[in-house]
Amino acid sequence: MTKIKMRIILCFLLLFVFSGVNGQTDTIVGAKKGKNRFISTRYNIGRVLQTNDFLMGTNMSEKPIDEFHAWSLRYGVQTDGSKDWHHIFNFPYYGVGLYTADFFDGDELGYPNAIYGFLGLPFKRTNKWLFGYELGFGLTYNWKPYNEEHNPFNIAIGSHRTVYIDANIFYKYHLGTNWDIKGGFGFSHFSNGAMKAPNKGMNLLSPFVELSYNFNGRPHFQRKRMPNYEPHHEWTAQVAVGLKSEQFGEIETDLELDEQKFKHINLSLAYLKQYSWRNKYGFGIDLGFDEYSGINNYYDHHGKPHTDKRDKLADQFVLGTFATYEFAIERLSVVSYLGAYLWQIEYDRKPPMLYQRFGLKYHFKNNLFMALYVKAHKFTKADVLEWSIGYRLIRKN
Asked: Least crowded by CB within 10 Å, which of 9, 39, 196, 376?
C-alpha cells in the first residue's frame, strides 16, 4: 500500500506541472463580469486503503474496514476575470464545503464531519464542458479516536480532530443556463500530523458525482493572453515550530503504554526561482532542533515505561538539505520538498535518510509569508505538523 499512496502523491504533483505548461491554450469568447456564485451537493462512494492492522480487520467486528460513502454541501464563487490570476488559471473557482462520512463502523470510528476550503483549476473548458482538477484542505471533527480502555483497536485515528486533504480530477457538463453535473475520481487523507498518537491515518479512493446550481446563470468568459513572465529570484528564511507525539510500547502487549510529546523547531534557508506565472523551484538547507532525537525508551522490571533524553543539547540538532517545488496561485503556493539528512545522531528510532514536506504557503504584500507543512518520511508517515513564518528577498533578472 505504501507504493500505491506514493504513486498517488506523485501523480497529483505531475498534474501541477502539466497544468503549468499547458495553461494558455483555450480562448473563450464573450465577456461578463460580476459575482457568479453557486451551490452544489456531492456524493462519494469508494474504498478505504488497507494501510494498517485496524483497517485490515484487527478491530471489534474482526472484519476489514474497506468501504465508505460521504456527502458534501458546497458553496462557491466562479472567478470573473477581474484579476490577472483568473486568466492565468483559466477562470478557476473556489469556495467552502461541509463534509460527512460513514465508514460503516460508527462504534470505533464515529461519524466524522469536515469543514474545508476548495479550489478548482481547469485544464480545458468549452461552452459545453469543463475538464480540470480540484484541491481541498480543512479540519475534520467528530471522530471516535483511540482509547486504551474503550476503543483499543483504533490505531488509525488518535484524536477527535484531524486534517482533511482532498485532491481529484473531474469532468463537468453544463446541463443548461443554471445547472451543471460533474463526475470525477479523487483521493482523500485524514491525519493529525503526529500531534496525538496513535496516528496511522486513513486514505480513501473514490469516484463521485456532483450536481450544482449557478445563481446568476452561466458566465461568459473572455480570456486575455498574459505577457511572458519575467522570472525573479527569491532568498527566503523561515522558522517552523511543531509538537509531535510518540507512543512507546505495543498495544497488543501487557506493557503499559507511554505517550510523550516532543518539541520541534526548524530554520530553513532557501534560494528559489520563479520562472513562470505558475511554477517555482529551488533548494536550501534545514537546521533543526528535535527533542525526540536520540531518546532512549525502556521498561523497568515492574513494566513501567521510562524515557531518557540526551544530556548534550547538540545531540538534538539535525542538519538537512532539500530541493523544493512550488505551484504558485497568486499569493498562495502549494509546496513540496524532498530532503536528505546530512547529519543526525545515531539512535534506535532514527528516521530514514530522506524526508518530505507537503503544505500550503501564503505570501503577504510586505514579503512576509506564513505556511503550514506536514513533514513526513517514506511519503506516507507523518512526522510532525509544522507552523511556519518567514521572509523573502526578491530580485528581478
From this structure: 39
Domains, in order of start, for the chain: 27-214 (2.40.160.20), 232-396 (2.40.160.20)
Cα–Cα nearest to 191, from 8, 358, 362: 358
Which amino acid, 178? Answer: N
| 185 sits in which H/E element | strand 179-191
Report how far residue 103's alpha carbon sits from residue 114's, in angstroms, rounded to the nearest whole number.
14
In sequence order, the 6+-apart residues with CB closer than 8 A to the CB of 166 are: 116, 118, 134, 135, 136, 137, 186, 187, 188, 189
Q: Could you read off the pLDDT of 255-308 as tens digits, one per residue?
A: 455 677 888 999 999 999 999 999 999 999 999 998 887 676 666 666 666 666
Strands 317-329 and 279-290: antiparallel
User: 3-class SS at 19?
Assistant: helix
Beta carbons of 125 and 142 less than 8 angstroms apart: no
